Amino acid sequence: MRNGDGYQPNPEHKFSFGLWTVGNRGRDPFGDFVRPPMTAIEIIQLLAEVRAWGVNLHDDDLVPIDATATERDAIVKEFKKACEQNGIVVPMATVSLFFHPIFRDGAFTANDPEVRAYALQKTMRAMDLGAELGAKIFVLWGGREGVETDACRRPDEAVKRLREAVNYLCEYNLDRGYGYRFAMEAKPNEPRGDIYMATTGHYLGFIPTLDHPEMVGVNPEMAHEQMAGLNFLHGVAQAWEAGKLFHIDLNDQMPGRFDQDLRFGSANLKSSFWLVKFLEDVAYDGPRHFDAHAYRTEDCEGVKDFATGCMRTYLILQEKAAQWNEDREIRAILEEISGNGNHVPSTAAFSRTGAQQLLAHSFNKEVILRKRLPYERLDQLTVDILTGVR
Ligand code: DIG
Ligand code: MN
Ligand code: MN
User: Fold this and answer.
1) 246 and 360 housed in the same domain
2) Quick one: which of 69, 138, 153, 175 is 20 to 30 A from 265 by CA?
3) Is residue 58 annotated as a catalytic residue, yes or no?
4) Would the pTM of this model clear 0.90, i.e. be above it?
5) Nearest-CA neighbor of 189 among 142, 120, 233, 239?
6) Are the beta carbons of 187 and 220 closer than 8 angstroms?
C-alpha cells in the first residue's frame, strides 16, 4: 500500500494527471523509449489505482490525428465508459499544436496562413472532444509559438496573430455553448529557442487586450516559471489576485535546466510548501494537475510511485501548512511584523484633505528603524516544521 499512513488522495483534493504524464515512455533527445506504450484505458486504470481524481488530454493523446469520424467516435465511447467505470473525471482538455511537423514554424503565429487556419480547425475539434468528455477548462500551451531567429517575423505581428486566434476560439466557445474557460500556459523556451508569452506575467498583460477577457485566464506551470528564474508563487498569486488562476500545472525543476517536469516537491521542497500553503490559504478550488513524468529509470511500478509521490507530497505539505498557520510563535511573529500604522494618515484612497495630512505628517525614522523584522526566526520555524523537528 503506497499511502497507508494517512496521506490518501481523495476526490475532494482534485488531483489530476494528463494522459501524457503517466503515459510518458521515457524517450528524450538522447535516448529511446524505456517503457512500453500504455493505452488510454490502461492509464485510466492506473490513475484509479493510485486514487487520482481526474485525467486530462491533448486531442492526439486519445484520437490519432488522422482518425476517421467513425474511429474517433468509437475511441471516445470506450474512453468515456472507462472513465465512468473507474470514477475518473475529465476536468481539462487541450490540443497538441506542437508535435506534428506542420507546426514547426508555430501554429497560431506561423507565417503560413494555411497553418494558422489548420491550427484553429484542430483546436476547435479538440474543444469538441473535450466538451464531449465534460471538460470545462481548455488549456492552450503555445509550445511552438516562437523563434530561433527574429528574422522570421516581427514579434508584435505574432502577438496580433495570437490575439486573432484566441478571439476566434472564444467566439467558437460561445457559438457552441461549451462554457469553457481558456487557460493560457507560458514557457520561456523549449522546444523553440525562444517562445512568445514566455511567462505567466506576459499572458496577464495579453488577456485584457482580448475581445472576451473574462473567458481567458492562465495555467501557470511550476517548472516553466522556474526555468525563467522566477518565483513561481509570485506569478500564481498575481494571477489569483487578478481572478485569472483558471488551472495550475504542478511539478518541480532544478534551476538552469531544461523543462524537467519532475515529481512535485522533489527538488524545491520549501518553494513547493509556499505554493501549497497559498493554494490552501486562498481556498483555490481548481484542479491540482501534475504535469510531470517519472524518471527515465522507472518501470511501470515506478510510474505509480511517481504519481503517488506527487499527491502524497502535496498532502504532506498541506498538513504542514495547517501546522504553520496554527503555530503560536509564528502567529506572534506575524502579529508583530504586521504593523498597525493606525497613527499614519490613511492612503487607502486619495482625498485632498488626506494628501494635505500626509504631506504635513512627520515620520520619526529612528523609531521606525527600531522595529524588528525577525524573518530569520520565522524562516527557521518554517524549516523546523518542514523537517519535522517542530
Ligand atoms: C507542457 O507543459 C504543456 C503540454 O503538456 C500541455 O499542452 C499543457 C497542459 O498542461 N502543458
Ligand atoms: Mn513542462
Ligand atoms: Mn504544462
Assistant:
1) no
2) 138
3) yes
4) yes
5) 142
6) no
